[in-house]
């Protein structure tokens, strides 16, 4: 960065508007979403799985709309992954308000487009700059002056071409995420209709035909109910404790001071932390891996692909189906499912009954549900034929979710490989990377 390029800093390009606090009594009421730390992905990007709305008034200067950019100048994770992280409001979020831990960026130069700066502030060089300037012990932060001092080279034509590619990659990743949300919602809706509302049974009881079912599937549903300990359930269905339906096991953590358990490990080993950034209930990878010796130290060993994992503490309620064999730490209840209750059925059952699962958690420092408290929860079970029919209908949905996740990982890897070029200038798009990007977007 020489000449005029080196003279620009963030302070020359943007002004900052810090957010504010909001009245707790108005949270969750209809209104704009609040855009704070929870709405920013680690190392940058928008996150919308935990957005809260606000029903009160706030100054217009705190308003964010689609395409607007905001940054976190704080981090409470100690990893600094959120420190300085940037997010851009997507088109499907019509209005937002910055909170006290984020700042809105207003652009004051036309020769440095916001979309260019957005990607510049996701480069490894910028991320390292933020970590190097972090202050604090319990809560990390970056001083306003340090943030504004970050150098901003003026974009050249090749930089803007690269930005186009990065935007296209991110758009495809976002499309996959939204597609997965739709697919997951379809599976949940079918579970709700069949196993909670009992819509096909009610239709037959009223003398009609169950909507959307072929004759063979409709025939498996009874036309009446009978009384049970949990109220009316379809005739012929049974109630069992979950511990008698699936095999529920826990995990452990081999000594981290013993290298032979970890060094060169090839077996996936997961903790609830791996689940905090999942955007669909499928686990594709883990942060750490164990050796054979490490696996031998865990009583449940290496669990098979397809195992349903429920985090039992810190926090209670993360859910995912393992796409590969995996070992777990002590923060999980793992469900080894079967044809009597498939993993897809149990995933949706856990989601539907999460309030009861959480109510059985105990603890003072943090809530935890033990296997002893989990196993007695009752499950209303349909006949095996109906379980098989449900599994057959939703299996393609989860297969597509998994395929989309794999594709998004490939695209994210390509995106992350391209990002450093915004500052290095060593790679020109005409050298063939744009072709590779197109191949990546066509993957799957």
Characterise the protein shown here.
This protein is an alpha+beta fold and 444 residues long. Among the domains are: 3-152, Alpha-Beta Complex (Adenine-n6-DNA-methyltransferase TaqI, Chain A, domain 2), CATH 3.90.220.20; 238-381, Alpha-Beta Complex (Adenine-n6-DNA-methyltransferase TaqI, Chain A, domain 2), CATH 3.90.220. Helix content is 35%, strand content 18%. The protein has 15 helices and 23 strands. The protein has helices at residues 10-13, 114-120, 124-132, 144-148, 157-196, 199-205, 215-220, 242-245, 292-296, 343-352, 354-359, 371-374, 384-418, 421-424, 433-442, and strands spanning 14-18, 33-35, 52-53, 63-64, 69-72, 74-75, 86-88, 96-98, 102-107, 134-135, 140-142, 225-226, 233-234, 238-241, 247-249, 267-270, 282-283, 288-290, 308-312, 316-322, 327-328, 332-336, 378-381. It has a 5-stranded mixed β-sheet. It has a 4-stranded antiparallel β-sheet with strand order 1-9-5-7. Helix 5 (157-196) packs across helix 10 (343-352). The longest helix has 40 residues, at 157-196. The two termini are 39 Å apart. Residues 425-444 have low confidence and may be disordered.
